[in-house]
Amino acid sequence: MRITLVSGSNRANAASTNLLKYMQGLLEPQNITVTLIDLAQLPLPLFTPDNWDFHPNAKHMLDTFAESDGIVLATPEYHGSLSGVLKNALDYVNPTLIAGKPVLSVSSAGGPLGVSSLTHLQTIVRNLHGINCSEWISVGFGTQAFDADGVLADEEVRTRVSDVLESFVQLTRTLGTTNLAAFK
């Protein structure tokens, strides 16, 4: 199984990126191949529909999506929505790359919740014909949510992340099996 994690922040030490790294640490021991796309490290030019000869960074991201069985999209919440960096990245995506794949939406907010950004992410996923995971993850209080070792500081949040991630992995396995069976 291959899962792509996309960090939609361009901030150093971003909580959304730290959360994905934490999740990567939970997934890899399960023999899941994980690719982390950190948009701060893989900058993309502004998308324009006038140019379909994409920048190598955009091609890398799109190739990774094509090879993925499931996708996790993480964003900080800016002004009640997802980051411009993640929105720009998703503008490059052709629905055929996400159609039928499970997508987990993740948000970090400076306050306790990031519900608006999660709702917007799920709308985008629906328009790309992806399958929204029935749950989402919102981690509040920014970088203070993590200790010095990159572990979520709150035990209840760690449990929530673990439970939601387990549900997402099960959905990815189920859909992968179903999709494979449909083509045999």
From TrEMBL:
Belongs to the azoreductase type 2 family. This is NAD(P)H-dependent FMN reductase. GO terms for cellular component: cytosol. Residues 1-143 form the NADPH-dependent FMN reductase-like domain. GO terms for molecular function: FMN binding; oxidoreductase activity. It comes from the Bacteria. InterPro entries: Flavoprotein-like_sf, FMN_Rdtase-like_dom, NAD(P)H-dep_reductase. SUPFAM superfamilies: Flavoproteins (SSF52218). Pfam families: FMN_red. Gene3D superfamilies: 3.40.50.360.
